[in-house]
Amino acid sequence: MAKAQETVLEINLNALEHNYRYLKSKISSKTKFLGVVKAYAYGSDAVAIAQKLVTVGADYLAVAYTEEGVALRNAGIKIPILVLHPQIVSFDTIIERCLEPNIYSERILTAFITAAERHQQKNYPVHLKFNTGLNRLGFNAHDISKITRKLAETSTIKVLSIFSHLAASEDINEKEFTLSQIKSFHEICTQIDAALPYIPFKHLANTSGIINYPEAHFDMVRSGIGLYGFGNDPIEDKNFIPIVTLKTNISQIHYLEANESVGYNRAFTSNSPIKTATLPLGHADGIGREYGNGKGVVCIHGHYAPIIGNTCMDMIMVDVTAIGCHEGDEVIVFGEKPTATEFAQGANTISYEVLTGISQRVKRVIIE
Ligand SMILES: *Cc1c(COP(=O)(O)O)cnc(C)c1O
């Protein structure tokens, strides 16, 4: 690992492979594996992650929006790609690029059938999503007869799979609710299988579902955060390796007298002499203002240094009074220590948000 001479997000594909193999060890060899690579593969690099997942043997990929799937097709990714939240304006592109839409409502079903007819498709693969309690996207169980009637009238599309999404699979206190979601999904599967002339495959579990609910793996599992190295639980986290490290280096050191202030609006004033380090990343890179004023803590030579004052657009200042460090020295914003989860906790948020928030200005460096 090279020392950072600028702000970089290092992406470790060996760690990705480790996480993939750990997740695979939790599922049956007959269960398919879908890697979720939406939002630039949780803020990393969707193409590099997708290519590695293809190499290690993932069966499916998923993105949120069509353009994310197009980027993967343009990079030569050939395995099936599920588009989790397709918009009607992108249906032509979906078909042209062989992407597979989530069909989650009657409006979307009707519009997609029209698009498939326009492209003279036969049995175009689609995936039906059911709402079992997340109340976000999905048909409800009582829509089944309407759906199957509509499907019977057309040969343009074919339901490859049916799926749903768990609301709180990481939360043991919500076990009863999760079990009720699993039960509802079973009932939906039974009804669909009885109503269609063929049997679609089924999937429900996200990362925490894979870990906590082996009875809910069905025919495929969908993992995002686990691939990127987080188990949504301090004990499970030990089985994963965070794949990204956000690193930078010290641009400048300042020695301040007592009562001098740091940064915009003079948000920080020291009451004793301090040593500060200015770092070349800020809210335009994804370290938002919520990390300012001591909420975010970075790591320099193994020692923690809190962010002082307000986060600027392109810079943050940290207190390094107690740290023997120099201009040009490496700084870890998050990675192994602190982890993205720990860094995020300072601002009351979660790994998912801090990872996906790292802006495209930060250079991605792939290591393997
Ligand atoms: C994002 C997403 C996932 C991945 O969830 P993780 O908790 O990151 O494993 C799985 N399924 C759906 C429908 C999603 O939107």
Automatic annotation (TrEMBL):
Leading EC class: isomerase
An annotated GO cellular component: cytosol
Keyword Isomerase: yes
InterPro entries attached to this UniProt entry: Ala_racemase (IPR000821), Ala_racemase/Decarboxylase_C (IPR009006), Ala_racemase_C (IPR011079), Ala_racemase_N (IPR001608), PLP-binding_barrel (IPR029066)
Record-linked SMART domains: Ala_racemase_C
Catalytic residue positions: 38, 264
Keyword set, alphabetical order: Isomerase, Pyridoxal phosphate
Record-listed substrate binding positions: 136, 313
Residue numbers of N6-(pyridoxal phosphate)lysine PTMs: 38
Cofactor: pyridoxal 5'-phosphate
Any coiled-coil regions, as ranges: none
UniProt pathway annotation: Amino-acid biosynthesis; D-alanine biosynthesis; D-alanine from L-alanine: step 1/1
EC assignment: 5.1.1.1
Family statement drawn from the similarity comment of this UniProt entry: Belongs to the alanine racemase family.
The protein's role, per its UniProt record: Catalyzes the interconversion of L-alanine and D-alanine. May also act on other amino acids.
Protein name, entry field: Alanine racemase
Species name: Cellulophaga baltica
Lineage per the UniProt record: Bacteria, Pseudomonadati, Bacteroidota, Flavobacteriia, Flavobacteriales
